C-alpha cells in the first residue's frame, strides 16, 4: 500500500520528468490521504504556479503557513508564490511576516 511519503516521492519524480499535470494529480492523491501533508501543499503550490493556476497556488502556499505557522520559510515561499502570481501586496505582506519572525525562530 502506498503511503503519503511514497506518493510524494513519485510526484517529485514525475515533475522532474516534465509532466507537471500528472505530478499535481499524484500530489492530490497524497492530500486525499493526508490533508495536512505539508510537503505536498508546498510542492503543489509551486506546480500550480507554473501551470498558471494562481488562485490554487496561493491557496496551497497559504495552507502551508497555516500548517506551519512558526516556520519562517513557509512565509518566504508564500511571498515568492504571490510575487510570481502577480499579487505584489500579498507577497510583501508575507515577506514582512517572514522578516518579523526572523530566521531560526
Automatic annotation (TrEMBL):
Alphabetical list of Pfam families matching this protein: TPR_19
SUPFAM superfamilies, sorted: TPR-like
PROSITE patterns: TPR
TPR repeats: 38-71
Keyword RNA-binding among record annotations: no
Top-level taxonomic group: Bacteria
Keywords for the protein's UniProt record, in alphabetical order: TPR repeat
Gene3D superfamilies with a match to the protein in the record: Tetratricopeptide repeat domain
Keyword Transcription regulation (UniProt): no
Protein name listed in UniProt: Tetratricopeptide repeat protein
Amino acid at each position: 500500500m502506498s503511503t503519503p511519503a511514497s506518493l510524494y516521492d513519485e510526484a517529485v519524480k514525475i515533475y522532474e520528468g516534465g509532466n507537471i499535470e500528472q505530478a499535481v494529480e499524484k500530489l492530490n492523491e497524497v492530500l486525499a490521504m493526508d490533508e495536512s501533508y505539508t510537503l505536498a501543499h508546498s510542492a503543489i503550490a509551486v506546480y500550480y504556479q507554473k501551470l498558471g493556476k494562481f488562485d490554487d497556488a496561493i491557496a496551497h502556499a497559504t495552507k502551508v503557513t497555516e500548517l506551519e505557522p512558526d516556520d519562517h520559510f513557509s512565509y518566504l515561499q508564500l511571498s515568492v508564490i504571490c510575487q510570481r502570481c502577480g499579487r505584489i501586496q500579498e507577497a510583501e505582506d508575507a515577506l514582512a511576516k517572514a522578516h518579523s519572525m526572523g530566521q531560526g525562530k
